[in-house]
Design goal:
By secondary structure, the protein is α+β, with helices and mostly antiparallel strands. The chain has a single domain, classed as L-fuculose-1-phosphate Aldolase (3-Layer(aba) Sandwich). The protein is 40% helix and 13% strand. The protein has 7 helices and 7 strands, in the order αβββαβαβαββααα. Helix 2 packs across helix 4, helix 3 crosses helix 5 and helix 5 crosses helix 7. The longest helix has 22 residues.
Length: 251
């Protein structure tokens, strides 16, 4: 395996990474992006081919730093746990973690607006404030059914390429970034882009089409902000504080 680019994550111990990931799971529940007890958010353990992920069978609200499991990119448990791994998590998350060493955190969701856009031939249109930020960051993968099988791994990785968002056609989306905070920020942006696009499509009026120059300016400025570690961290920490005032952690 090639060297893993973990960036600022190298300064964090496993305990802090577990706390951040548990907070991310709780935020997805808090913001209404859960899908019963399905889907996954994974976080690489720095310098390894192992990642933290939710144990199958627990709701996102039940995730704690302690009950997160450690699996390899082959999907097999690397440490003893009373909880099983989920084969669907291995197929997508294991494949991306194995192939993209610049990526440390991956979140896969099935939000209604996201699934709606994923089922449209044109995908994201990039004609709203949020969608314009996603230009050149999205790969599209043709639906092959439930992501359970090893044979699909290479095809999903090829569909993602060097981008940070994988739209799984007729299915959902996976967003991939360097750490928990930037992944959360990107996931929020994708959700907002999809929600606004769905609302715009429901109105009996023509969309204002953004010029290529304005789209590129928006993409470039968003990319510049994304390079700031504090930008995403402020947003993530603020949402965690809001969530805890409403839904205090029990651990």
């Amino acid at each position: 395996m090639a060297d893993v680019d973990t960036g600022s994550m190298t300064a964090l111990g496993e305990g802090e990474l577990r706390r951040q990931l548990a907070d991310f799971y709780h935020l997805v529940h808090f913001m209404g992006w859960t899908e019963l007890l399905f889907n996954h958010i994974s976080l690489r353990l720095p310098g390894t081919d192992e990642y933290l992920v939710n144990p199958f069978g627990l709701h996102y609200s039940e995730i704690t730093p302690a009950n997160l499991i450690v699996v390899g990119t082959d999907g097999k448990l690397r440490r003893p746990s009373p909880h099983p791994a989920n084969p669907a998590g291995f197929a997508l998350h294991g494949a991306v973690h194995d192939a993209r060493h610049d990526i440390n955190c991956i979140a896969h969701v099935h939000g209604t607006a996201v699934v709606t856009v994923a089922g449209k031939t044109g995908g994201f249109t990039h004609n709203n404030f949020y969608g314009a930020q996603l230009i050149d960051r999205i790969g599209y993968h043709t639906f092959e059914g439930i992501t359970l099988y090893e044979g699909e791994r290479d095809r999903m990785v090829a569909s993602l390429g060097d981008r940070n968002i994988l739209v799984l056609r007729n299915h959902g989306v996976a967003v991939c970034e360097r750490d928990v905070a930037t992944t959360f920020m990107l996931l929020w942006t994708v959700h907002r882009a999809a929600e606004v696009q769905c609302q715009a499509d429901a109105m009996k009026a023509d969309d204002i089409i953004l010029s290529d120059a304005i789209r590129e300016s928006c993409r470039r400025d968003a990319a510049s902000l994304n390079q700031s570690a504090s930008y995403a961290k402020f947003a993530f920490d603020g949402q965690v504080r809001l969530m805890r005032r409403t839904m205090p952690a029990s651990w």
